[in-house]
Amino acid sequence: MDEARELLVSGLIGLNLTLSEHQIEQLLNFIKLIEKWNKAYNLTAIRSRQDMIRLHLFDSLAVLSFIQGQRVIDIGTGAGLPGIPLAIALPNTEFTLLDSNAKKTRFVQQVVLELKLKNVTICHQRVEKFHPEYLFNEIITRAFTNLSEMVELTSHLLCKEGVLLAMKGKMLESELTQLSSQYSADVIPIQVPGIDAERCLIRIKFLARAEVP
What we know:
Elements: H1 2-14, H2 21-41, H3 49-61, E1 71-75, H4 83-89, E2 94-99, H5 102-115, E3 120-124, E4 136-142, H6 147-154, E5 158-168, H7 173-177, E6 184-189, E7 200-205
Parallel strand pairs: 1-2, 1-4, 2-3, 4-5
Antiparallel strand pairs: 5-7, 6-7
């Protein structure tokens, strides 16, 4: 893992992030677990360890500075992206990782156990049927669905002043125009080390949400 560690450390410098040795080990072990489980669980089409670090870890951690709330939910987490890397980097933030695919939630639960992540809860559920006891400060999604459907499916999960953070590649103007005028949306360009492809974060603010109990 020496080359992988060097790549990861270099990328963290590029992202202007400072993580402990323990957190770096957790991130590397996360990639090892994806590699181990990938053949049986089809977690990702990416096979190269270096590409996993760039396209999964760096891509996830590039939005770290936009996570500000105490309670965050990752909708459609899949193999735990971006939720696991963010939870490793923000151990004092509570993360819920939700996905409707049982195989993937079983994998992510194993990751949580093996990496001893105390700030992560796994939920196997469809988002529209998920009604948590406490609402969330932020929702984050990564290549989940189009924005208007995303808003419709997830808005019941947010507290007042809650924010939806949608990680996207190239942003289509048509998606923004389909949003209701009830919501404000900011398109924020994201730079990911080692990735030339276009990346952006859509920050959507909702109106008239209930307070977190």
